[in-house]
Amino acid sequence: MKNIRLRGMVYGLMTALIALALTTAAFGQGRSGGAGGGRGAGAGNAGGPPPGVGVDRGLGNASASSNGRSDNGLGNASDRSNGRSDAGLDRARIASDNLHSADRDLRDHPGVANTLHTNANDLRAGYQSALLTNPNLKFGQYVAATRLAQNLGSRFPAVTQSAILDGLASGKSIGQTLQNLGLSSQEASEAKKQAEAEIKRGRK
């Protein structure tokens, strides 16, 4: 009789424990499911985006979507820029060297500006502007072009400072440029000698 009662008590206790365990498990699942897209939605990503979402993934997708063209484009742009940069630096260096030489010339021979009926600052500024078009232009060539235009402009309207500088930029000499602008070979030679003599006096 006692054994029957003991067994009944054991079965009752086990049944109660099992029921309690099932109730606890069900309650836990209910909280997890009710979290929706919150903390319960993805362990290790509390409040954050799912794995693989973000800037890094966006860049990766851009490269993958373009089959690598975006990466190649960046490399090509860099190469092209470097080529232009090198050429630009060379031109800037040459122009800078020529401008420094002009500064020394103006300091040593301030009378040159007076010969051209201008002042040193304006003469330097004009030369600096001309270097933007032709960085290889020497200061002496600029001075000669300016004086020739002053001497010849009234008789030969085509002979201007800009026209002479354009001829020099194209690779022609001053004599060739003057002839292209309407002077004969003898006239061009005489004009050059006159301008050189006047500039020489200004350098004393």
Structural account:
By secondary structure, the protein is an all-alpha fold. It is built from 9 helices and no strands. It has helices at residues 2-34, 55-65, 69-108, 111-115, 120-133, 139-152, 161-169, 174-180, 185-202. It is globular, with a radius of gyration of 44 Å. Residues 21-60 have low confidence and may be disordered.
Index terms:
mainly alpha; 9 helices; 204 residues; single chain; 0% strand; globular
In a few lines, what is going on in this structure?
The chain has helices spanning 2-34, 55-65, 69-108, 111-115, 120-133, 139-152, 161-169, 174-180, 185-202. By secondary structure, it is mainly α.
- Determine the fraction of residues in helical runs and give it as a percent range: over 70%
Distance between the termini: 143 Å
Enumerate the spans where pLDDT stays under 50 for 5 or more consecutive residues: 21-60
Q: Into which percentage range does the β-strand content fall?
A: under 5%
Alpha-beta content class: mainly alpha
**Number of contiguous helices:** 9
Write the topology of this structure:
Layout: H1 2-34, H2 55-65, H3 69-108, H4 111-115, H5 120-133, H6 139-152, H7 161-169, H8 174-180, H9 185-202
Helix pairs in contact: 3-5, 6-7, 6-9, 7-8, 8-9
